Amino acid sequence: MEWLDRQWVDTVLEALTAFFLVAGSLITFISSFGMVHLRDFYLRMHGPAKATTLGVGLVLFASSLYFILIERTFHIQLILVTIFLLITAPISAHLLAKAALHRKLPSTPDTRGAPGELKPEDTAREPDTPHPEHPGGTAPQRPEQPQ
Amino acid sequence: MIDIALWISFFLIAMAIVLNAWRLLIGPSLPDRIIALDTMYVNSIALIILYTIWLGSRVYFEAALLIAMLGFISTVAVCKYLLRGDIIE
């Protein structure tokens, strides 16, 4: 690692750290601004689900570059946080979208992909599966358990 | 160069957290408030990482990991509560 001690490596690392810091925080700010500015919940999901992960990932990458710059060591915790955020952001976005659809939140008329656009055969209720021993009737009551 | 970038990043992420708090206050429905909290913990991780850069020490990396894990688990728990009316069935 002889080449790490040269002068231009420090300059390049410092420039990359500053660039990734500003880019990541700008993307994070834009996603939070979109979460305030957009009109319905399904539009507002876009910022936290995608842009915030990218912005915080860039800030974490800048931090690991900075610790390479000042200590010449590499810390695994930052990569752990990045991987954890990359894994968990889609899961929480998926669960939030399911909760919003479950509560039937309103969407603006020009939002595409609303549940109202589903075909009737997609949303029609399937008939109940008959009981294998008592077709056509209700299942017998379970006998009382002796105390 | 890093000092100027650090101050710009502090300002932008603090403003992002203020916007999240605004959405948390006015959010018309419950999932809006949950997603505001979700974004707020991710932004607070970024703020902690900026603080470690400013300090030049790595004391707070574990705090960032803990906030990431507990925030995800709390988001999933509240979403399960909204979906099913119960967390552990």
From TrEMBL, chain A:
Listed PANTHER family: ANTIPORTER SUBUNIT MNHG2-RELATED
Keywords: Membrane, Transmembrane, Transmembrane helix
TM regions (residue ranges): 12-30, 51-70, 76-97
Originating species: Kushneria aurantia
Biased composition (Basic and acidic residues): 118-134
Protein name: Na+/H+ antiporter subunit G
Region Disordered, annotated ranges: 105-147
Alphabetical list of InterPro entries matching this protein: PhaG_MnhG_YufB (IPR005133)
Keyword Disulfide bond: no
Lineage: Bacteria, Pseudomonadati, Pseudomonadota, Gammaproteobacteria, Oceanospirillales
Presence of the UniProt keyword Transmembrane helix in the record: yes
UniProtKB/TrEMBL annotation, chain B:
Bilayer topology annotation: Multi-pass membrane protein
Record localization: Cell membrane
Membrane-spanning ranges: 6-22, 34-54, 60-83
Alphabetized UniProt keyword annotations: Antiport, Cell membrane, Ion transport, Membrane, Transmembrane, Transmembrane helix, Transport
Residue stretches in coiled coil: none
Lineage: superkingdom: Bacteria
Entry-linked InterPro entries: MrpF/PhaF-like (IPR007208)
NCBIfam families in the cross-refs: PRK06161.1
Stated family: Belongs to the CPA3 antiporters (TC 2.A.63) subunit F family.
Designated name of the protein: K+/H+ antiporter subunit F
Phylogenetic lineage: Bacteria, Pseudomonadati, Pseudomonadota, Gammaproteobacteria, Oceanospirillales
